[in-house]
Amino acid sequence: MSVRVLVRTFSELCLTAGTLIVLFVVHLLFWTGVEADHATDREIDRLEAGWATGQGPSPAAPGGGEGTESAPNGSGPAQNGAESAPNDSEPAPKAYAPGEPFAVMYIPRFGADWDWPVLQGTGTDVLKKGLGHYASTGPLGAKGNFAVAGHRRTHGDPFKDFPRLRPGDAVVLTDGTTWFTYRIANKPYRTVPSDVGVIDPVPRPLKEEAAAFDEPGRYLTLTTCEPEWGSSHRLVVWAHLDATHPVTDGKPPALRS
Fold first, then answer.
1. CA distances from 41 to 74, 100, 115 (A)
2. How many CB atoms lie within 10 A of CB 89?
3. What 3-state DSSP class applies to 42?
4. Dihedral sign, Cα of residue 236, residue 241, residue 242, residue 248
5. What sign does the dihedral 207-208-210-216 (CA atoms) show?
6. How far apart are the first and last CA of the chain?
7. Structural domain tally of the chain?
8. pTM higher than 0.85, yes or no?
């Protein structure tokens, strides 16, 4: 075989490999985002249609949840016209079928158009359609820790701007009847996937000095991958339930400002 043939063959192999790499990158950066946009729109449409007809998500037996959940790897509705602070009355526990959407999350820090459905479980298929609720953690707005995971990159990049979160930022969720406004307590905490204490009812990170809370309360935990295009570590923020607001009274202050 001549040198010219060898060079041509090598060049063709390099060209083929380069084309495959480009197609793979396009799939990750573009196509998964397109699919995620369609999927999240469908899930939010399902929720809003159910809320409009008074039919919520399908319930599951207590303790039911997504079987492939992985480690990172409150108060009831206000009954009057004003926003209210959380009190000690415990809402009825809520459970949903694996993969079922049950809330929508808004984070003003990420922009006025940022809204994502929250589904039960954190399996791969679930996180392609929205944010995932760790099924072993507490219900939305209740005492304990309502923990949620989301992709940093790919599948719509929901938590792309996670490092921008700061103490005092609002995280707002609705289940169709109530707005729940949480306030973030810490800058993003970098840890390892085995640091499972970050989603405990009272979050207990491996680095004790990073703990945001030291007693029971109504908490929210958000987790995502770190670094931006990897998964060797996790970023975590914690928040406490600051106020509840009836949906019938319109958007809460955090979404109106």
1. 28, 14, 10
2. 8
3. helix
4. positive
5. positive
6. 72
7. 1
8. no
Q: Please, which residues bridge with residue 191 across strands?
A: 234
DSSP state string for 97-156: -TT-EEEEEE-GGG-TT-EEEEEE---HHHHTTSEEE-TTSPPTTSSEEEEEE--SSSTT
Share of the chain above pLDDT 70, in %: 71
Question: Taking the CA of residue 48 as centre, how many other CA atoms within 13 Å lie in the half-sphere pointing to its CB?
Answer: 10
Q: What is the CATH number of the domain that holds 181?
A: 2.40.260.10
Report the 10 Å Cβ neighbour count for 131. 26
Identify which of 158, 154, 152 has the alpha carbon closest to the alpha carbon of residue 227. Answer: 152
The residue behind tokens 């499972």 is 196
Cα 163 to Cα 128: distance, rounded to the nearest angstrom: 21
Averaged over successive runs of 10 residues, the pLDDT of the chain (257 residues) comes to: 61 52 45 69 91 67 40 37 56 75 97 96 95 97 97 95 98 97 98 98 97 98 96 97 96 93
> Rg for the chain (alpha carbons), in Å?
21
Cα 236 to Cα 208: distance, rounded to the nearest angstrom: 14
Q: Which domain holds residue 213?
A: 3-256
Residue 72 to residues 28, 148, 199, 233, Cα–Cα distance (Å): 22, 10, 8, 8
Number of other residues whose CB lies within 10 A of the CB of residue 51:
17
The amino acid present at 162, given as its one-letter code, is F
**Closest C-alpha to 83, from 242, 225, 256:** 242
